[in-house]
Amino acid sequence: MLGLGNSIIGGTVLEEAYVDPSSFGSLALWLKFNTGIYADEPDAGNSDADSLSHNDKIDEWRDQSGNDNHAVQTTSADKPRWDLSNLEVDKGAVKFANTAKFFDLTEAIEITGDFTVMVRFRLINLSVARSFIGNSSTDLFRAQDTTEFRAIIGGSGSSAWDETSATALSTNDTTKRQIVTFTRESGALSVRVNGGTSAGGWKNEQDDVDWDSAETHSDTDTFTISNIGCSADDTENQNGWFYDVLIYDGIALNETQRKQNYDYLNGQST
User: Fold this and answer.
1) Per residue in 188-229, pLDDT tens?
2) Torsion angle of alpha carbons 106, 110, 111, 112, nearest 10°?
3) pLDDT tens digits for 140-165?
């Protein structure tokens, strides 16, 4: 059976032109830049960049994958904010302020095979570990500091990638963005980073760097994801901005596919 993005002509399987991250199929979650973002405090019902006000409290970031697995927050103190402080670059962004904001998914994602997690972000600081996604202490993916990422999948043991030869992650720099990609292919785990400045095509600091490529971590346990912006409710919270969150269930994106997504995601900002 053919997957999304392929067709048959004269008995030959042809790959169709890339359109957006859904071109690869298998999308379990797509929290899309400036799309489906709803605030209920103080501007109830406002959505998307044209109607949100600076510092509005966000109660829902709607999934664009077609699965309706929205990121939600009902507790006022835990709601991320809509941030308009860097309009020359961002056109607005979801801010996890004061290390106390996060989202819960409508339904936990449980992945048993290959996967890709891709997050476009900017950090305020990494004085402590900041989780991108998680589900209690048994399932998470986090930035440990500016050179190290760690993951726990279905258990207590962690996998670490500490890259000292590449440019470290940027913090507290409004001109820079990073995209981190965490994949599993036939059990093998890997982390890649793409980032830099607009003038450098968003890749002049890290150009799809295979982070700590000498590591050979493997884990076939079920990966459960129920939180965005923390490892568990009010634990290892992010301190910074998220622009996009993509989770694929069933595919580890290859280099060509990753770079197609990088170009698409970075192109949404301007």
Assistant:
1) 999 999 999 999 999 999 999 999 999 999 999 999 999 999
2) -170
3) 999 999 999 999 999 989 999 999 99
Domains and CATH numbers, the chain: 18-267 (2.60.120.200)
What whole-number percentage of the chain has pLDDT above 90?
82
Q: With the C-alpha atoms ordered 245, 51, 195, 125, is the resulting torsion angle positive or negative?
A: negative
Beta-ladder partners of 38: 47, 60
pTM: 0.93
